[in-house]
Amino acid sequence: MYKKSITALIILIAAIALFGCAGTPEPAPEPPPRQEPARTPEPAAVTPQPEPPAVTPEPVVITPLPEPVVITRQPEPAVVTPPVREELVLQGASRHNIVWLDSLSQIAAREYGIENMYYFPLIRLANAGVVFDPDWIMPNVVLVIPDLQANLNDPGARALLKTEMLSMVIHYRNRNMPVAADEIKNLADKL
Predict the structure, then answer these.
(1) Domains of the chain: which residue ranges?
(2) C-alpha closest to that of 93 among 75, 116, 111, 74
(3) Sheet strands (E) in 130-176
(4) Which side of the chain, N or C, has fewer Cβ within a 10 Å radius?
(5) Which long-range contacts (CB under 8 A, 24 or more apart) does 67-73 make?
């Protein structure tokens, strides 16, 4: 029994301690301030704009042009120059049978001399239907080899040769062969 009274006393002390320490209750937190609902602005009143005044175009006045003045003078005597025919001179041309590993520059060096080997576009031009690439020609084909000096002396043939040489400059620059391109360009500039 003694144990029961001690247990009861402990419970009583615990209850007093629990409820006695509570003291005064803390005040409840204040509620947050009341917020006003967001208002949507009312659309502004539309004031009608006055219509712009009508614009009347100004009349266009067309002034006639004055009569042309005709000046007559005596015609100068015409200087008749024969048209330059742009074609190769093939008189005195020789023939060459292509062998394996021949190139047009090698053939030009043999036919025109080593110092004129870059005039090979003349051979290509004379054989346009046979030679498409100056560095790749087929064996056992007979080429026409025009006379170099006769073609350099003829203005039309020289103009054709210059055009062909400039196309070969582009060809060799595209193949990354600047030495050949520069040599041909130097010769073409002298034509």
Answers:
(1) 94-190
(2) 111
(3) 142-145
(4) N
(5) none
**Per-residue pLDDT tens over the stretch 171-191:** 999 999 999 999 999 999 988
* Helix (H/G/I), strand (E/B), else coil: 65: coil
Round to whole Å and give the CA distance between 188 and 191. 5
CA distance 64 to 27: 103
Beta-carbon count within 10 A of 171 CB: 17
Contacts with 121 (C-beta within 8 Å, 6 or more apart), sequence order? 104, 134, 161, 164, 165, 167, 168, 184
Residue 122 has pLDDT above 80, yes or no: yes
Q: Which residues fall within 8 angstroms of residue 123, CB to CB, at 6 or more apart? A: 104, 107, 108, 111, 131, 143, 144, 145, 146
Tens digit of pLDDT for each residue in 8-58? 777 767 667 666 555 555 666 676 666 666 566 666 666 667 776 677 777
Distance CA 13, CA 17 (A): 6
Q: How far is CA 43 from the centre of its chain?
A: 54
CB atoms within 10 A of CB 157: 24
- For 170, the token pair is 């582009």
